[in-house]
Design a protein that fits this description.
By secondary structure, this protein is α/β, with parallel strands linked by helices. The chain has two domains: about 140 residues, Response regulator (Rossmann fold); about 55 residues, Winged helix-like DNA-binding domain superfamily/Winged helix DNA-binding domain (Arc Repressor Mutant, subunit A). The protein has ten helices and six strands, in the order E-H-E-H-E-H-E-H-E-H-E-H-H-H-H-H. Helix 3 runs parallel beside helix 4, helix 7 packs across helix 9 and helix 7 crosses helix 10.
């Protein structure tokens, strides 16, 4: 099997040389190029067409997140593995949204880096154990379901639920102890936010979302 072709992107020459030296000792991968900025990374990736780009985040000219976004958009067949010292949520999720297939910290052992390179070259997603734990904690702490129609206020959601039950404006006003004019204003806002033409379409959308049942 041909070795996995790599492009190392990092603005620290010492780190690039160290990583290249480590990878030179294994037959599974070969470093075909280096870049010190996000701009150079895109240029080198397009010219060399590596299998995997080892991408740092904080770099001059163009950071690794934006470079990843542009690279993935231009050459989606190239896998990006972020290799950085930053493990904060903002960096991790920004890299994922940009299209990175993997995320490792720079203190990862060579075996872990090689496993990640191999996985990313196959189109798989992979994260270091520390990052994986952060992702699990984030998603386990997040609400399991988002509220229906987040653009609506809580009161508008209440009005919509009653509309979906078939109540008239007058009945809604009585139940919520609101003036008829206020209810009409809420209904008008709801139709606009849901981008529906009339009350009937609003009812269909509301019931599809589980309201009014």
């Amino acid at each position: 099997m041909a070795p996995i072709r790599l492009l190392i992107v990092d603005d620290h020459l010492f780190y690039r040389e160290g990583l290249r030296s480590m990878l030179a000792a294994v037959p599974e991968a070969v470093v075909i190029g280096e870049a010190a900025t996000g701009t150079e990374a895109i240029e080198q990736a397009i010219a060399l067409q590596p299998d995997v780009v080892l991408m740092d985040i904080k770099m001059p000219e163009l950071n690794g997140i934006e470079a990843t976004r542009r690279l993935v958009a231009d050459s989606p067949q190239i896998g990006v593995l972020v290799l950085t010292m930053f493990d904060d949520d903002d960096s991790v999720f920004a890299a994922m949204r940009a299209g990175a297939r993997g995320y490792l910290l720079k203190d990862a052992l060579l075996d872990e880096v090689l496993r990640a390179i191999t996985a990313v070259s196959r189109g798989e997603a992979i994260f270091s154990s520390a990052i994986a734990r952060r992702l699990m904690q984030y998603f386990s702490a997040a609400p399991s379901t988002a509220p229906a129609f987040p653009a609506l206020t809580e009161r508008e959601r209440e009005v919509l639920a009653l509309i979906a039950q078939g109540l008239s404006n007058e009945a809604i006003a009585a139940q919520l102890v609101l003036s008829l004019k206020t209810v009409r204003n809420h209904v008008s806002n709801i139709l606009g936010k849901l981008q529906v033409r009339d009350r009937a379409e609003a009812i269909v959308k509301a019931r599809d979302a589980g309201l009014g049942r």
